[in-house]
Amino acid sequence: MSQSAKTWGIGAAVLAGIGLLGFLHYQSGQRPAVHMDAETVHTAPSVTDKRQQITVAFVPVTCHLTCPVTDYASKTTSTGTEFDAQRFTAFPAIVEAIKAKRVQAAFLTVPLAMQLREQNVPVKICCLGHRNGSAIMVQKSNPAKDLNGLRGKTIAIPSPFSNENILLHMLMQKQGLKESDLKIIKMAPPDMATSLAAKAIDGFVVAEPFCSAVERNGTGRALYYAKDIWPHYISCALVVHEDLIKEKPEVVRDLVRGIIGSGEWAEDNRAEAAKLVAPYFRQNVALLNYVLTNTNDRVSYRMLTPGDAEMQTIEDMGIQFGILHKRTPMSELMDKSFIPADVAPIKIDPSKIGTMPGA
Q1: Complete edge-to-edge strand list for the sheet that includes strand 105-109
Q2: What range does the domain containing 168 cover?
Q3: Nearest CA to 301 among 356, 359, 262?
Q4: Which of 188, 192, 209, 248 could form a disulfide with 90 if both were Cys (CB 3.0 to 4.6 A apart)?
């Protein structure tokens, strides 16, 4: 990314123009926008409840679906820990919350977790939350058959420190595009679909359900699905502060078991999972159901143990494209000791699906 400063400068200017349209809440730059303040989905019960409680941050993308499922299960069944899913609309606010230890567990993009380690923020990846589930979307009327057809166009990514950004740069390199050939800007995922519909951007690369949203409303189409370019693609992982790992390992173990068990349950109960997470995501049930049931490989919630080799590949590409700047040993980046040997579906009480228990 030899011209990255120039590219992000262009991106900032483009976003400033978009802001004049009045429908976007997110701006480029380093300071968080107002709308990125966290919204607590569920308030923990009274102090008379003897179970331990922990807040887990997430963004409303299907890569993070196992977070609200784990929240729901902990409030409707008997578990050792109660988990409170805390909804954010973009990643920078989660990063600031982790640095300030306002939250000690969160779903983040893998390169963003790597960047935090570069900055000596003591966090570790403890498991994945999904496989696949991202796509490069363009205007439906755009006849482009590859990235060459998008030269000079504005493409939004959720973060420079994202595998969506790496995916885009992989294709740019393969197809002979330079950094200056595309106008790459960062944008909060919830703003992408409306921006494409308003023709404020020409395309975006992000996780579901925003890809399916523009497919269904007729404003966009998929140019590439991540799974077709990058088998078993990973966008996000569960990141835990080392202080929590040291001080309350049993809570971390319960959380990781819950995330992996939630994935197993969601794989076999996709329609129910869509209904369960809709109030947490504040999204339409029909849209989430389309994402989860249209094809079972659009996003997957199995194979949630991160492999050293695939994580090393992500780090290598991050360095190659100028996103990351130094190598972090895999032993410092990850702690896979909490992943259960036997994977079992989490227990779900179906009677309250479609609501947020205790809210």
Answers
A1: 39-40, 81-87, 52-58, 105-109, 236-241, 123-128
A2: 4-15+135-229
A3: 262
A4: 188
The span from the CA of 45 to the CA of 73, in Å, is 15
Edge-to-edge strand list for the sheet holding 203-207: 183-186, 154-157, 203-207, 134-139, 220-225
Does residue 47 surpass a pLDDT of 80? Answer: no
Same domain? For 114 and 259 the reply is yes
Q: What is the pTM of this model?
A: 0.85
Is residue 124 located within the same domain as residue 241?
yes
pLDDT at 133 over 80: yes
Picking from 236, 309, 260, 297, the residue whose alpha carbon sits closest to that of residue 88 is 236
Q: Is residue 149 part of a domain?
A: yes
For residue 263 the two structure tokens come to 């994935």
